[in-house]
Structure of Cyclin N-terminal domain-containing protein:
Amino acid sequence: MRAILVNWLVEVAAEYKVSVDAYHLAVTLLDIGPSQNAQQPQHHHWKRFYVHRSDFQALGCTCLWIASKLEDRTPPLQDDLVYISDQSFDAERLRAWENRICDGLGFRLHRVTPLHFVHQALRASQACASCQNPHPVLRQLVLYLLALGRLPLTLNAVTSSPSLLAASAVYLGRATLGITTGNDDDPANGFWSPTLCYYTGYTKKDLTDTVLALHRYQSTVDSSEYRAAYLEYK
């Protein structure tokens, strides 16, 4: 259910030009509260209230709407979100969900996302790269890998730290493009350097499990049913 919703939100964000910052904040807001309740399997619990399965689309749109209002100059209109959801909810329900989410989170809506750590990691990557000029593809590849990393719930569970997912995406991006620190004796270790360790706070060993999990998903996403991010960045 969650993967379907997050995958669909990629398409909604692309349709209404929602920023990458807003998209990642929306997924973070979505993941903060809902968790499976064993005694009420038809519902999800978020703070002081339950979310029925039939309301998940409205919940996702509301999270994206809130995030876009915080991050973007021109967020999508509520009528646009009602339209793209095929009228599964109305504008009044969208506003009601906004009130419930804001109240449930105590209006603490600015949350840390993996994107907050990517920019510094990319600067550190450039500082220790073997080439002098920024790699023209690395940033887009890392953003793509971050989008993939938000889709599978199992990967999100592994990467409970946003900074860990960000560092893993940078490592995998460098490895995919063959960007090293110029260590010809050990090119595999050249994908991660003391500079990157210092600025991200993670060693290569710390990243191993997350990088491998992200790489497995990267390798199969083109044949997956959840491939909106793949099509968006293709």
